[in-house]
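WARN retry 2 of 3 for item q-0093 after timeout on previous attempt; input resubmitted unchanged.
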Amino acid sequence: MRENTTTHPPTPDLELDCPTCGTPMEVIDRFTLPGVPDDVEHLKVRCIVGHWFTPTTESLVKATVTVPARVISE
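OK item q-0093 returned
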């Protein structure tokens, strides 16, 4: 069985808000857990109030991608 491994340094460029209280969050660690069909990278994040989360990197990257608004001409 593979062990949890830290594979990447923290990602300070990701700007996130806490889903619980809305305060800024910081990335504390990045690690990979075994998964099927591939391993899954997770982030350990915390807000300034003290809430902790370990979401997948993919879920946060998708959530932070901004889509330009469509301009509707009259």
